[in-house]
Amino acid sequence: MRSLALASLAIICSTCTLSAEPPKVVEEFKGQVSSVTEGDMLQLMRDKETITIRLEGIDAPEKNQSFGDKAKAALAAMTSGKTVTIKKTSADKYGRIIGYVVADGVEVNAKLVEDGFAWHFKKYNDEKRFAELELQARQAKRGLWSEANPLPPWDYRALPKTPGASNPAATATDRK
Fold this sequence. Notes:
Blueprint: H1 2-18, E1 27-38, E2 41-46, E3 49-55, E4 58-59, H2 68-79, E5 83-91, E6 97-103, E7 106-107, H3 108-114, E8 119-120, H4 128-140, H5 153-158
Parallel strand pairs: 3-6
Antiparallel strand pairs: 1-2, 1-5, 2-3, 4-8, 5-6, 6-7
């Protein structure tokens, strides 16, 4: 009986998490994208200053990971050279602005998840829409979900680094 109660509580709590509201936007501004660093990070010019933007709610494959170059190319295709709107939600410990990026009326963060170029970064964001977009991309086997067991970037970053290794872990199957 106790295990049934705990299971019910877990289901209720997981539902609560999935219905969470997006993080509050604390500032909104525009800037021109000058470069795309990774699949979830870009730089833009604002008032003659270069600002690094980390996309809210997502985590894209690292450069040396499978789909790392494709995720970067997807972000670049949507934003490079364009004037975009940044909806800042916070800043990280490295001084980067974390926020939503809107280009040509499209929220880029959500589009990258929808197209299978990024994971919903549940550790830092519990938006239901990102969870749903990731699930749809998985089911449709879009982008990185075309692989059998794509390795999340947070797991990739946690792997021991081998000096001189170019791609120590492209997918989860490589770890076995």
